[in-house]
UniProtKB/TrEMBL annotation:
Pfam families: Methyltransf_11
Organism: Asticcacaulis biprosthecium C19
GO molecular function: S-adenosylmethionine-dependent methyltransferase activity
Comp. bias (Basic and acidic residues): 281-294
Region described as Disordered: spans on this chain: 262-294
Keyword field contains Nucleotide-binding: no
Domain Methyltransferase type: 41-132
UniProt xrefs under InterPro entries: Malonyl-ACP_OMT (IPR050602), Methyltransf_11 (IPR013216), SAM-dependent_MTases_sf (IPR029063)
Keywords attached to this entry: Methyltransferase, Transferase
Gene3D superfamilies (alphabetical): Vaccinia Virus protein VP39
Domain of life: Bacteria
Protein name according to UniProt: Methyltransferase domain protein
Lineage: Bacteria, Pseudomonadati, Pseudomonadota, Alphaproteobacteria, Caulobacterales
SUPFAM superfamilies linked: S-adenosyl-L-methionine-dependent methyltransferases
Length: 294
């Protein structure tokens, strides 16, 4: 993945529109939290865009030291004036309880072991520390995936995975719970992008370092016949009135807290001191509450 990000470094700035949307979603989540974060880490900071955008918002007052990190030295050289690290998201070099906030914008969907990364993030956070991450969800590139699959079946008589699978929102909230995060929240932001041609879409994916990263991807590449049939199918099914094709991207924002004794906890079943009927001002009947009738 590091070599892929290095190759994409020159074109990254021209294909940053989805990451800008993800950063906007992240800052919106952060701005709603009334908390000070003395030490924050950004995983997969790319060209440092998040740090620059953060500096221009009121949320900047909530963040003390921002540490930017990435796999790619080429992209790291373009970062903002924050502290910089070159590191692997799957091997975090931070001690337990050392960070107040961890941010990730559109980088964790490419890791090999997402549950393992989330466990490392939780361990690195101090009690009552916060994680906010954005990653592509299951609706992402559904049009391209469908057309590529059908075209390859027609042309070659079989299909190999060309696009890595993306997690669904419901699966992610369960994953946050299983990896020990408290009060997890998952939001979905669907973005529809218009292109003049499917190959223009694929060029943007390469510029964003979002081309196929699967280890077991097909050995045979996308030849002319396959691309031509995929293009025909794409225009037949997903072209608008102006002859441009559409592509869907689902940006999922997930957040969760490391456990702390000050956090709200659900009451034990049967421990309530007030009856629901009393709170609603109704009489309690045989099968629950009922409105009193005259």
């Amino acid at each position: 993945m590091a070599s892929r990000r290095n190759r994409a470094a020159n074109g990254f700035a021209q294909a940053h529109f989805l990451r800008e949307r993800a950063i906007e979603d992240t800052l919106l989540t952060l701005s709603a939290i009334n908390r000070q974060f003395d030490v924050a880490l950004e995983l997969g900071s790319g060209d440092g865009r998040f740090g620059r955008e953060l500096a221009n918002t009121p949320a900047a007052a909530k963040v003390g030291l921002l540490i930017e990190s990435d796999l790619s030295p080429a992209l790291s050289a373009q970062q903002s004036g924050a502290a910089r690290l070159i590191l692997d998201e799957e091997s975090l070099p931070f001690g337990d309880d050392s960070l107040n906030l961890v941010i990730s914008t559109l980088s964790l969907h490419t890791v090999n072991d997402l549950p393992g990364v989330l466990v490392q993030i939780r361990r690195a956070l101090q009690p009552d520390g916060l994680f906010i991450g954005t990653l592509f969800g299951g609706e992402t590139l559904k049009e391209l995936r469908g057309c590529l699959m059908e075209a390859e079946i027609e042309v070659r008589g079989g299909y190999g995975p060309r696009i890595a699978p993306f997690a669904e929102g419901g699966d992610l909230i369960d994953l946050m719970k299983r990896t020990g995060f408290q009060m997890p929240v998952v939001d979905s932001d669907r973005v529809t992008v218009s292109y003049e041609h499917p190959l223009r879409l694929m060029a943007d994916l390469r510029a964003m370092a979002e081309s196929n990263i699967l280890h077991d991807r097909p050995r045979k590449g996308l030849n002319r016949a396959l691309l031509q049939r995929m293009t025909e199918l794409y225009f037949e099914r997903f072209a608008d009135d102006e002859g441009r094709i559409t592509a869907t991207f689902e940006i999922i924002t997930l957040s969760g807290w490391k456990a702390h004794e000050s956090q709200q906890k659900p009451l034990r079943p049967g421990s309530a001191k007030t009856r629901l009927a009393d709170a609603l001002g109704v009489k309690e009947g045989r099968f629950g509450t009922a409105n009193e009738r005259e």
